[in-house]
Amino acid sequence: MIAGRSRQDELYEEATAAHGPALERLARSYELDADKRRDLLQEIHLALWRSFEGFDGDCSLRTWIYRVAQNVAASHVIRHQRQRLRPHVSLDDIAEMASSADGEAAAGRQESIEQLYALIASLNPVEHQVIVLYLEGFDAAAIGEVIGISSGNVATRIHRIKRILADRFERGGRQ
């Protein structure tokens, strides 16, 4: 350990180096508004750093990170729903996405991605957590460990959520 650095700091640095982009994607899936998303990401990072004080290694670092991040994001959504500040759909973030040589095709892809984020944001909290973790590459057992349901239940939910999202996407986002 480097002098002056705690285990908490080292775990946080390791976590953000390995999973920083995934945490950004998770925040994006919960918050469509760019400013609120930055606030959420900051809340996640603070909670993550604080959580490492009590990290005992009973689960993998990855599972711990997602458990903390999911809890912070779910609390964020609940808080904003209560305040009725959560937007239903926002296309302001399209400019943030990388553009390609073919501007029209890129715009179409960006619009589709934004529509998918909006559809994911409209799911109930458990479905939202399941599909975000699935999209991050977690298997059913790991997802179950993070959110506290059986892997069989997770697999069933993934199948159902994918079907729901595909149907809604085909209907242009209408439920």
Task: Give a written overview of the molecule.
The structure is a single chain. This protein has 175 residues and is mainly alpha-helical. The chain has a single domain, classed as Butyryl-CoA Dehydrogenase, subunit A, domain 3, CATH 1.20.140.160. 70% of the residues lie in helices and 0% in strands. It contains 7 helices and no strands. α1 (7-30) runs antiparallel to α2 and α5 (125-135) packs across α7. The chain starts with 6 loop residues before the first helix and ends in a 5-residue tail after the last helix. Residues 85-101 have low confidence and may be disordered.
Descriptors:
0% strand; 70% helix; mainly alpha; 175 residues; Butyryl-CoA Dehydrogenase, subunit A, domain 3
CATH superfamily: PhyR, sigma-like (SL) domain
CATH top level label? Mainly Alpha
The tally of helices reads 7
User: What is the number of beta strands?
Assistant: 0
Radius of gyration of CA atoms, rounded to a whole number = 17 Å
Number of domains: 1
- Which H/E pattern describes the elements? HHHHHHH
- Share in β-strands: under 5%
Oligomer: single chain
CATH level 3 topology: Butyryl-CoA Dehydrogenase, subunit A, domain 3
Largest sheet: none
Extract low-pLDDT stretches: 85-101
The class by helix and strand makeup works out as: mainly alpha
Annotated CATH architecture: Up-down Bundle
Helix content: over 70%
Q: Give the distance, in angstroms, between the N- and C-terminal Cα atoms.
A: 53 Å
Q: Average pLDDT value?
A: 82
Short note summarizing the structure:
The protein is mostly helical. It has one domain: PhyR, sigma-like (SL) domain (Butyryl-CoA Dehydrogenase, subunit A, domain 3).
